[in-house]
Amino acid sequence: MIALVLAHLFIMHYASVPSATTSTFVHARWAAAGWRLFDWALLWLAATHGIAGVHGMLRETIRRPGGRAALDGVAALVTAALLGLGTATIAAPFPSRTPGPLSAFPWIPIVLTGALDVVATATYLGLIWIGATFAVRIARQAPLGRWTYPGQWAFALNRTAGVGVLAFLLVHVLDIALFPLAPDLYDRAVAAYAMPYLIPMEAALVAAVLYHALAGIRLMILEALDRRGAAAAVPSFVALLVLTVSLSLPALAVLLGWRP
Q1: Within-domain flag for 25
Q2: Per-residue model confidence as pLDDT tens digits over 26-76
Q3: What percent of the chain has pLDDT above 70?
Q4: Does the first or last residue of the chain, that is N or C, have fewer Cβ atoms within 10 Å of its Cβ?
Q5: Is 116:198 a contact under the CB 8 Å cutoff?
Q6: Could you give the 3-state DSSP secondary structure of residue 15?
Q7: Is residue 158 part of a domain?
Q8: What is the domain extent for residue 190?
């Protein structure tokens, strides 16, 4: 999954920009069966991984058997719906005409753009809250948080990144589902990614994907080293942060219009 995710991230955020992935782009990409298989495998791995992760997080806070059973049912339904819609979209034949059968509903891209705005707003408010909290604690010379070990911060950041990526994935599957049904509306939905308000969110998305993927690799290495990896825990966390920021900067430059 990490290999597929990083390859997809490079194509969509380094070699191109999300607003350029129009119906023409998707048509050319999915003309090759290999790319359809690539996207289908990525969908299944990312969706099941993300939903299982959030499901596990919520299960930690829900103690009653009835609540957990309800949560299990919701998670199963969301997974089935997401995978079913994504699979049907990828397997669908190319649209034979424009406008398509859903083109009579111009409100659809407006709703999808609104959903992206909600994700972006939540991202910005969260970053502002974290920054303000840290600023106040630093001014008061207080500890930065209740966690004293870098591993606790790495864990918290990993979960936060995963939740953010899943939130975007849910919206992304909905907008790509427009391609076989209304290519013109799909183009309108994709054009929203060029909105200045969404660009910081897209940059944060790149950072979240990179951090989540690299954190997974870090954990696998530390687990393989077992006790021998104890001394590498802190340096590897620092390296993880530096790598995330360093690798995110080129994507940000592309989003802002820079081209080599």
Answers
A1: yes
A2: 999 999 999 999 999 999 999 999 999 999 999 999 989 999 999 999 999
A3: 95
A4: C
A5: yes
A6: coil
A7: yes
A8: 2-255
Tokens standing for 36? 């359809």
Structure tokens at 210: 């990179």
Report yes or no on 260 lying in a domain. Answer: no
Query: What's the pLDDT score for residue 147?
Result: 62
Cβ atoms 16, 53 nearer than 8 A: no
Give which of 155, 245, 207, 179 is closest to 22, Cα–Cα. 179
Length of the chain as a residue count: 260
What lies within 8 Å, CB to CB, of 195 at 6+ separation is: 113
Q: CA 219, CA 242: separation in Å to the nearest integer? A: 16
pTM, two decimal places: 0.89
8 Å CB contact between 209 and 124: no
The H or E element that residue 169 is part of is helix 150-176
Nearest Cα to Cα of residue 194 among 16, 8, 7, 5? 16
Number of domains within the chain? 1
Single-letter amino acid code for the residue at 160: T
DSSP state of 19: G
Residue ranges in the chain whose pLDDT is less than 70: 97, 143-148, 258-260
The span from the CA of 83 to the CA of 105, in Å, is: 24
Residue 41 lies in a domain: yes
Q: What is the pLDDT of residues 105-130, one digit of tens each?
A: 999 999 999 999 999 999 999 889 88
DSSP code of residue 94:
P
Q: Where do we find the tokens 């955020």?
A: 13
